[in-house]
C-alpha cells in the first residue's frame, strides 16, 4: 500500500497542473492537488492512504514551501512606512481574529479559539508567489505590497504556533528560546554578508553548472540545520525552514551574477514545487474527512463562513492600510490576496484534530474555507492584470 499510495500521489501531482492549464490557469494547481488528494484518499475512493512514506514526504514539502517563501522575502522592503503598514495591518488582523476567537470560545473551548484565531491571521505567501510570478506581478507595487503583507501573514502565525500550540515548556520559556533562535538567525545573516568567502563562492558558482549542484545541496543543508535547531529548542520546525530561506536569500543577494541567482532560484523551485510541495497539498486533500461533514451537515455552512472570516480579518486591514498608497482598486486587490490562506490552515487543522481542539468535521470545514479563499480570491484580485496590462494598472501607484 505505501508504494501504491506514492504512485497515485505522483500521478495526481502530474495531473493537477494539466487540469490547471486546461482552465487557462484560472484555477491554481494547488486546488486540483487537494481535490485529487480528496478523491484518491480514504474519504472517497480509498485508493491511497496519507501515512508512512507519503506523509513523511508531505512534511518535507511544507518545509520546502516555507523555505521558498523565506527566500522571496527582501528585508530591505521592511523599513519605515512599509514595515508600519504591513506590521500594523497584521496586528489589526490579529485583533479581529481574536474577536472571532472570543466568540468561538463562548461556544467551544479556548484551545479551539486560539487555533482558529491564529489561522485567520495567516496569508498563503508560499502559494501566492508562483501565481504572482506567473502573472508578472511580483515587481509591481501590488506585488511588493503582497510580499510585505504576506511575509507578516506567514511569519507571525508561525511564531504564534511556536508559542501557543507546540509541545514546549510554556509560553514564557518558548519566548526565550525564540530569542536565542532569532540571535542565531541574525548571526548567520550577518556572517554571510560580512565574510565574502571567495573560494567557497567560486566553488558554489561552478557547482551550479555541473552535476554536483553544490548550491542546491547547501540550501537543503540550511533547511535541515535550521529545522533541527528549531525543533531542539521546542520551536515549530516551519519557523526554522522559513528562517533558512531568509539566510539563503541574504547569501544569494550578494552574488554578482544575476543570471546565476535566477538559475539557482529556479533549481530550488524545481526541487520544491516540482515534487515535494505538490505531495504536501495532495496529502492535505487526502486528510479531509468529508464523511464527518456529511454526518454533521451544518458544518458545510462553516466553509463560506471561514472564507468570509479570512476576508474580514486579513483582507480588510490590508485594504485600509494600503489604500492611501496604492489607491482603492489596487488596495482591494491586495486585500483579496492577503485573505488567501491555505498552507498554515491545513497545518493548524491537522494540529487541531490531533490535540482534540477541532472535530474532524470542523477541521475539514476550516481547510475547506481556506481552499475556497485560494480558489476565489486570487482570481478576483488578478482579474485583468497580466504582463503589460499589469504595468499599466500600476502607473501612478506608490511603492509599498
UniProtKB/TrEMBL annotation:
<feature type="transmembrane region" description="Helical">
    <location>
        <begin position="30"/>
        <end position="51"/>
    </location>
</feature>
<feature type="transmembrane region" description="Helical">
    <location>
        <begin position="266"/>
        <end position="288"/>
    </location>
</feature>
<feature type="transmembrane region" description="Helical">
    <location>
        <begin position="145"/>
        <end position="166"/>
    </location>
</feature>
<keyword id="KW-0812">Transmembrane</keyword>
<feature type="transmembrane region" description="Helical">
    <location>
        <begin position="57"/>
        <end position="76"/>
    </location>
</feature>
<feature type="transmembrane region" description="Helical">
    <location>
        <begin position="214"/>
        <end position="231"/>
    </location>
</feature>
<feature type="transmembrane region" description="Helical">
    <location>
        <begin position="172"/>
        <end position="193"/>
    </location>
</feature>
<feature type="transmembrane region" description="Helical">
    <location>
        <begin position="358"/>
        <end position="382"/>
    </location>
</feature>
<feature type="transmembrane region" description="Helical">
    <location>
        <begin position="300"/>
        <end position="322"/>
    </location>
</feature>
<feature type="transmembrane region" description="Helical">
    <location>
        <begin position="88"/>
        <end position="107"/>
    </location>
</feature>
<keyword id="KW-0813">Transport</keyword>
<dbReference type="GO" id="GO:1902600">
    <property type="term" value="P:proton transmembrane transport"/>
</dbReference>
<dbReference type="GO" id="GO:0016020">
    <property type="term" value="C:membrane"/>
</dbReference>
<dbReference type="Pfam" id="PF00999">
    <property type="entry name" value="Na_H_Exchanger"/>
</dbReference>
<keyword id="KW-1133">Transmembrane helix</keyword>
<comment type="similarity">
    <text>Belongs to the monovalent cation:proton antiporter 2 (CPA2) transporter (TC 2.A.37) family.</text>
</comment>
<feature type="transmembrane region" description="Helical">
    <location>
        <begin position="237"/>
        <end position="254"/>
    </location>
</feature>
<feature type="transmembrane region" description="Helical">
    <location>
        <begin position="113"/>
        <end position="133"/>
    </location>
</feature>
<dbReference type="GO" id="GO:0015297">
    <property type="term" value="F:antiporter activity"/>
</dbReference>
<keyword id="KW-0050">Antiport</keyword>
<keyword id="KW-0406">Ion transport</keyword>
<dbReference type="InterPro" id="IPR006153">
    <property type="entry name" value="Cation/H_exchanger_TM"/>
</dbReference>
<feature type="transmembrane region" description="Helical">
    <location>
        <begin position="334"/>
        <end position="352"/>
    </location>
</feature>
<protein>
    <submittedName>
        <fullName>Transporter (CPA2 family)</fullName>
    </submittedName>
</protein>
<keyword id="KW-0472">Membrane</keyword>
<feature type="domain" description="Cation/H+ exchanger transmembrane">
    <location>
        <begin position="11"/>
        <end position="377"/>
    </location>
</feature>
<feature type="transmembrane region" description="Helical">
    <location>
        <begin position="6"/>
        <end position="23"/>
    </location>
</feature>
<dbReference type="InterPro" id="IPR038770">
    <property type="entry name" value="Na+/solute_symporter_sf"/>
</dbReference>
Amino acid at each position: 500500500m505505501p508504494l501504491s499510495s506514492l504512485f497515485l500521489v505522483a500521478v495526481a501531482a502530474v495531473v493537477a497542473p494539466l487540469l490547471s492549464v486546461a482552465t487557462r490557469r484560472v484555477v491554481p494547481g494547488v486546488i486540483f492537488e487537494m481535490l485529487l488528494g480528496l478523491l484518491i484518499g480514504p474519504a472517497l475512493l480509498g485508493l491511497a492512504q496519507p501515512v508512512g512514506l507519503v506523509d513523511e514526504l508531505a512534511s518535507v514539502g511544507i518545509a520546502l514551501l516555507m523555505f521558498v517563501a523565506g527566500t522571496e522575502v527582501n528585508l530591505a522592503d521592511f523599513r519605515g512606512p512599509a514595515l508600519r503598514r504591513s506590521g500594523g495591518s497584521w496586528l489589526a488582523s490579529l485583533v479581529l481574529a481574536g474577536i472571532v476567537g472570543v466568540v468561538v470560545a463562548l461556544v467551544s473551548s479556548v484551545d479551539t479559539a486560539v487555533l482558529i484565531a491564529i489561522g485567520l491571521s495567516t496569508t498563503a505567501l508560499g502559494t501566492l508567489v508562483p501565481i504572482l510570478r506567473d502573472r508578472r506581478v511580483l515587481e509591481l507595487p501590488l506585488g511588493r505590497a503582497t510580499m510585505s503583507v504576506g511575509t507578516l501573514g506567514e511569519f507571525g502565525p508561525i511564531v504564534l504556533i511556536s508559542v501557543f500550540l507546540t509541545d514546549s515548556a510554556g509560553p514564557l520559556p518558548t519566548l526565550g528560546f525564540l530569542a536565542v533562535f532569532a540571535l542565531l538567525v541574525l548571526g548567520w545573516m550577518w556572517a554571510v554578508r560580512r565574510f565574502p568567502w571567495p573560494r567557497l563562492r567560486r566553488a558554489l558558482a561552478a557547482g551550479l553548472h555541473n552535476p554536483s549542484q553544490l548550491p542546491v545541496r547547501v540550501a537543503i543543508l540550511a533547511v535541515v540545520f535550521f529545522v533541527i535547531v528549531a525543533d531542539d529548542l521546542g520551536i515549530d520546525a516551519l519557523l526554522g525552514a522559513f528562517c533558512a530561506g531568509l539566510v539563503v536569500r541574504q547569501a544569494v543577494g550578494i552574488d554578482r551574477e544575476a543570471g546565476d541567482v535566477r538559475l539557482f532560484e529556479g533549481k530550488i523551485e524545481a526541487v520544491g514545487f516540482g515534487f515535494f510541495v505538490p505531495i504536501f497539498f495532495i496529502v492535505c486533500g487526502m486528510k479531509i474527512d468529508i464523511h464527518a461533514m456529511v454526518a454533521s451537515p451544518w458544518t458545510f455552512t462553516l466553509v463560506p463562513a471561514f472564507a468570509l472570516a479570512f476576508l474580514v480579518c486579513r483582507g480588510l486591514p490590508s485594504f485600509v492600510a494600503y489604500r492611501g498608497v496604492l489607491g482603492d482598486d489596487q488596495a482591494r486587490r491586495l486585500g483579496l490576496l492577503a485573505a488567501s490562506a491555505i498552507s498554515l490552515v491545513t497545518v493548524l487543522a491537522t494540529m487541531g484534530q490531533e490535540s482534540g481542539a477541532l472535530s474532524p468535521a470542523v477541521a475539514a470545514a476550516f481547510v475547506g474555507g481556506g481552499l475556497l479563499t485560494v480558489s476565489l480570491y486570487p482570481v478576483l484580485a488578478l482579474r485583468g492584470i497580466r504582463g503589460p496590462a499589469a504595468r499599466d494598472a500600476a502607473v501612478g501607484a506608490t511603492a509599498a
